[in-house]
Design brief:
Two copies of one chain form a homodimer. Chain A is about 45% helix and about 10% strand. By secondary structure, chain A is of the alpha/beta class. In chain A, α14 links the parallel β10 (about 295-300) and β11.
Chain lengths: ~425, ~425
């Protein structure tokens, strides 16, 4: 009873409360969502002599001679660290590394279910960017990839760029790039619905944290030139003297008309609103002030910047949220599992822009001819998603010259399906 | 064919070679011995809303208010870091953190198979003790215990003691204490065979690395007073001016007669030889020079200090090795899984001496009345071992006041058997 009620949509305070109570009860019963299992037999003396001493010495010797063989004789190539300092967890803010662990365990479960990736939560007990970078760099012998998670802006930008420099494995901040990939996919489909092209759109992004800035950069990279970024003080621009270094940099290539003012001012006459901010940040009037055929992505969690019914009533042509109980759920789970699956399968050195754009286009292509105002992005449990994304990402890694173990997209897709136990 | 050949004993160069080749081939096929699995369902929107957002926010909030609840709502309480810097791996020496990973994966498999512990390999890319300590300390939010592995002496002593000071979870260097526990168990049984008591024994330990020093300390702790430690330069004593600080400390309470000389000199007239050194370090003549009813633990791997047949021919009453193809295998797998199982089950703050001695006595008690020169220690696959050790360790943790979640030994034994899927 309770369950079907919740599936129908977590809209009232009562159902929210019952979901929270159920989640707490189950977390206490589970006492951990992950299990580290042996894939190999250790049932008798012979098994041990192969998987452990004395046999294990042989792969050790080979890796000692050529450290790159660690990805041949161990599971490092498929093992990802989910790294957090607990400074920006979900909508909960800076709750610390311990309190972030339930989320990271859940993330690991998603990595396995949707990407066949072995992902381990690395919750770090410092919020000093230099210490985070040093710690993660020292762990590189155990990991084939780094997924940064729930690290607050602006520290996240420094941590990410320094890790990319210091590590020879993919480093990916999901709150930035995972979100940007899925938003780009949704935006490309929305453009098909409204008959516009992305590079002619006037776009307002509300929320200048990790996600907002990454989305702005992604849109700019694929050709959009009229982007306005807003934070809690309004439009980000050269006129502001309160900007962080990162926002100052973004101000250099956004807001080309030098507009000033608040979010309502920014939205007037634009074609697309992207919210990664807070509940109720947008009114009906603000949507009504947009250009005809407006696209509204209201992705604040759990409560969107404006409810879909209100946005549609105010004239929006396409609406998306982060919620599973409305159409067009913009959910990172569409991105990171397949992105890492593809990157790991060709042992990419990095996850570069080409690979991210390829992931977004793969998601848009999956929607394809079925695109409609209520269907601009695949559903999170669409079984076609992981292989489509991994194949596109691997292909882009090979084309852009960052793959250490090149494979064709068909092979990567087939491997992904096999690892996930899906029919070919 | 090959398999049964190897089970019979890895004695010739041919069989050693074939085992190594098979281990290499299988490691390449496995490409990793571990899998990180979700224990909870993530098959639909409802599952995700409990294990991930939005439901997961509720346990996060509780942990943010009271960080100790991380051990109630996550798997941290049962998760152990297997930490190495790759400086002293098996008999291979300083092969580095990457080359150590196959061993750490195998160790994790043993932790699960014999202790139902989720253990993750943390291979650290530095051999600076301060950096190792800082890295591990920063990872404490993810782990309920730390197993140090294959870190060379003397750095291992500094790393261990500083981590014990800095961390509020058990820190255990298996090469030291795991070995010392199993050796003590074997020694207690050997005393029953020879009719002596441990505190009257004259003991020579050859090898003054992590294991040798820990064994010396353990024997001293349980009452032995005539202990001589030897390193490659002979007897460790106050007369030596080449000692590390740790060996100097040990020299203060060993070698009470102030003897000088080499290993042969040290062994004359003693009751027990404990070798954690190298192949062929001991001759028949050296064993023959020991007192009547001599006990010889020749544990160099893979080839012992003296072969059992030679030691017995020279008059030894009891012989043990590290090898699975002879009686009396002194194998750490008898210790660390049950020791951590017991410590984790009562959420012990540390693994103290009382717990280590309790583990040793539990192993000796399992041998009990069946003790004989050929059976002084349980076999590694004896299914009674994990629960017996965990119960004794948990009980000692409770008695010594370090258990955060006290449970009786019967409950711990039953939980251990249940977690391992063994009949009660």
């Amino acid at each position: 009873m309770k369950r079907s009620y919740i599936i129908c949509g977590v809209t009232g305070e009562d159902s929210k409360k019952s979901l929270q109570e159920e989640a707490l009860r189950l977390h206490e019963r589970w006492r951990g969502k992950l299990s580290i299992e042996s894939k190999v037999p250790v049932a008798n003396v012979y098994d041990l002599s192969i998987a452990y001493t004395p046999g294990v010495a042989e792969p050790c010797r080979h890796i000692a001679r050529d450290p790159s063989l660690v990805d041949v004789y161990t599971g490092r190539w498929n093992t990802v660290a989910i790294v957090t300092d607990g400074s920006a967890v979900l909508g909960l803010g800076n709750i610390g590394a311990r309190a972030a662990l339930p989320v990271m365990e859940g993330k690991s479960a998603l990595f396995k279910a949707f990407g066949a990736v072995d992902a381990f939560p690395v919750c770090i007990d410092t919020q000093d960017p230099g210490e985070i970078v040093r710690t993660v760099t020292l762990l590189e012998p155990s990991f084939g990839g780094i997924n940064l998670e729930d690290i607050a802006a602006p520290a996240c930008f420094e941590v990410e760029s320094r890790l990319i420099e210091d590590c020879d494995i993919p480093v990916f901040h999901d709150d930035q790039h995972g979100t940007a990939v899925v938003v780009l996919a949704a935006a490309l489909s929305a453009c098909r619905v409204t008959g516009r092209s992305l590079d002619e759109l006037k776009i307002v992004i509300n929320g200048a944290g990790a996600a907002g800035i990454a989305i702005a950069r992604m849109f700019y990279h694929v050709g959009a030139r009229e982007i306005i970024l807003c934070d809690t003080s309004g439009i980000v621009g050269a006129h502001r003297d309160d900007l962080t270094p990162v926002k100052r940099e973004v101000a250099g290539w956004t807001n080309p008309a030098g507009r000033r003012g608040d979010l309502a001012e920014a939205m007037r006459g634009t074609n697309m609103f992207v919210g990664v901010s807070v509940k109720d940040a947008v009114s009906r009037e603000m949507v009504a002030s947009m250009d005809e055929g407006a696209v509204v992505f209201a992705m604040a969690n759990p409560d969107p910047e404006i409810m879909p019914a209100d946005a549609l009533a105010a004239g929006a042509a396409v609406v998306a949220t982060g919620r599973s109980d409305f159409p067009n759920q913009v959910n990172n789970v569409l991105g990171f599992p397949g992105i890492f699956r593809g990157a790991l399968d060709v042992r990419a050195r990095v996850i570069n822009r080409e690979m991210k754009v390829a992931a977004a286009r793969a998601l848009t292509d999956l929607v394809g001819g079925n695109v409609s105002p209520d269907y601009i992005i695949p559903r999170p449990f669409d079984p076609a998603v992981p292989a489509a994304v991994s194949a596109a990402v691997a292909d882009a890694a090979v084309s852009s010259g960052v793959a250490r173990e090149p494979r064709g997209p068909e092979e990567v897709a087939a491997r992904t399906r096999a690892m996930l136990g899906l029919a070919g």
